[in-house]
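ARCHIVE CARD
SHELF: 3
SLOT: left
DATA:
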Amino acid sequence: MSDTAGQGGQRTGTGPDEWSPDERSAPDEPSPDEQPAPDHPSPDEQLSGGRLSDDERRKRRRERRNAAHRGAQRVLARPGFLGTLRERLALLDEARALDLHDLDQPSDLYGDGIVEALEQRTAGLLGKEAAAFFPTGTMAQQVALRCWAGRTGTPTVALHPLAHPEVHERNAFSQVSGLRPVHVTSEPRLPTAAEVRDFDEPFGALMLELPLRDAGFVLPSWEELTDVVEAARERDAVVHFDGARLWESTVHFGRPLEEIAGLADSVYVSFYKSLDGFGGAGLAGPQTLVDEAKAWRHRYGGTVFQQFPTALSALAGLERELPRLPEYVAHARVVAAALREGFAAAGVPWARVHPEPPHTNEFQVWLPYDADALAEAAIRQAEETKTALFANGWEAKGPGLAFTEVYVRAAGLEWTAADVTAAVAEFVARLTGGAGT
C-alpha cells in the first residue's frame, strides 16, 4: 500500500541529540527531550525550588549538557559550533594559513568570487558538471526536487518516512514547494529495488538519504544501492541523493565520492554536519539543473549578499576534515565494540549498538532505562569526571527504553578501547545509584 505523507503525519520530535549540527536544532522546533515531566522533581527543579514547565526543563537540561560538554577534558567529538565566538573566528585564521583562496581578490557579492570557487570544488569532488551553494540543505533539496518535478511532469517524490524532510522540516516539501511525498517503505532502512519496482503509485523522483540518519545512520550495500537506482531508472524516475553525510560513506561502500555520487542525477551535501563549517550546503548535478536551481535560489531568498566566512570555512573543512573522515569511521567501530563490551561487563541487562558495526562514524546506542535517568547520568558524568561519554540527549522509545546518538571525530581518536570501557563503568555507576550519590 502506498503511504502518502500529510501534514498531520509529520513527527514533531527532533530526535535524541541536542547539539547535533542539523536543521533539527532550529530554535523554532521542539527540543529533543520530548518525555513528559517526571512525577518527582528533576535536579533542575530541585535547584529552582519549584516545578518547571517541560520547555524550561528541556532548556535547562540542554544548557547543563552543553556546559558540561564544553568543560569536559575528554569527549568523543568536539563540534566547533559549541565553541565560543573567538574559537569559531579562529577557523578563519586556520583557513588563511591553509592558503585555500587568494584573499587579495575582491570579496564575494551575491554568489561570485569565493562562493563560485567553493561550487567548483564541490562539483569536482562529486564528479558533476556544476554545483550551487545554498544557505541551507532544506532550501537546496526543495529547489532540486521542484526543478526535477518540472522536467518529469510530476510533483510526486518517493522517499523514506524517516528522511530529513519528512521529520525535521515542517512539511516544507508540500507546504512551500508543492511537492507530494510518498513512502516506498516503512522499514528502518533504505528501500529495496523490489519495493521501488513494485510501488503502486507513479513518482518522478526517488530521494535517498545516505546515510539514513534517523534509522541509525544506516547505509545499504553497494550492490543494493546500485539495484535501487536501476529500479528507479526502470520507472523513468530521476534519483536524488540527500548526501548531508555522504562524505563519510566512502568507507562502507568501498568507493570514491565521485563514483557514489555518479549514481544519482543530483546530490546535496552539507558543509557543516561532517566538515565543521559555519553552515551551508551544495547542490551538484547537470549544468542545466544547477542554472535553474540558482534562479530558484534567488526566488527562495537564498542568494545572500556576502557569504565569504561560510564559504571559507567550508573550504577549510574540505581541506582539513574530509581526508580524516575514514579514520573517524574506523575508530567509531573500535568505540562501538568497546561500548558493547563495557555494558556487558557492567552488568547492564541489555544494550545495543546500532548498526553494528557502524556504517559511518555515527551510530545509535540503545539502553533499557528511562530517558531522563540516562540523560542525568550522562550530564553528571561529564560534570564530575570531565569525561563526556554521551554528549547527546536521550529519546524515549517506550517504557524503560531509550537511545542516543554517538559521534566519533578528531577528539575521539585519543580514546582507546580500554578508555571507553572505563567510561562506561563510570556512567553505569551513576545510572544505577553508585558513584556520586
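SLOT: right
DATA:
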Amino acid sequence: LLDNYIEGKSCAVYFFTGVVDGGGIIVKGNTLSTTEEDDGVESAARVYAVDVRNGGYFDVENNKMSAVSAIYLYGGTTVSSAGLLRVADCTFVCSTDFFDSSLVYLDSSVTLHGGAQLRVEGNNVSTASVLVMTSAQHKIELSGSGTTVVLAHNRQVDDSYPFAYLDESNMVVVSPARFVIGCNVQDDEEVSYDGLFPEEVVVFRCGTCN
C-alpha cells in the first residue's frame, strides 16, 4: 500500500485476521486519516488478529496519519520465528482530545518469540503518546533469543501526553529476550522513563551508540 491518500470514517485502512508467513505487508508513503472521532477507537490503520512469522514482516513506514490513534492493534497479535512488526519514520497528529490517544495503541495482548521483533522508531508524534496499553488483562510477552521490542528515536512535539501509558504488570520479558528503549525526545528534552517500565527494560541515552 504505497503513496495513497485514504480518508475513512472510523479507520482509513483495516487489516482483518491476517497471517503473514514469510511474505510481507508494506504500508509506506501514505496519508491516512479519519472523519469520525466519537468512540476513541478511530485509527489510521486498524489491525485485527495479525500473525507474523517465519521471517515475514508488517512494515508501516513514512506515513502521515491523523486520527484518535495511528495504529490500533486488537484481537491478539503474534510475531514469531524472526518475524517483524515495525512502525517507523511516521508523522502522527491526534485529531481530537482523548486521554489515551497514541501512535501505537494495544487493545489486546502481543506475543513475541523465536527471534521476533517489534520496532517503533524514528516517529514524530503530536498531542498523543507513543505507546498505550490501558487494560491490565493484556500483556506484552517476550521470550526466546533475539526476540526484541525497540522504542527508539521517537519525538513527541510537546509534553501534554506521557511518552507511554501502561503498567509494569503489562510486560513479561523472559531472558534472553530484550525490551530496549532509548533516545526518545519529548518537548525537545530526553524522555524520563521513571515508573513507566519494569527493571528488565534496557535503557540507552541520547548520544550513545546501540
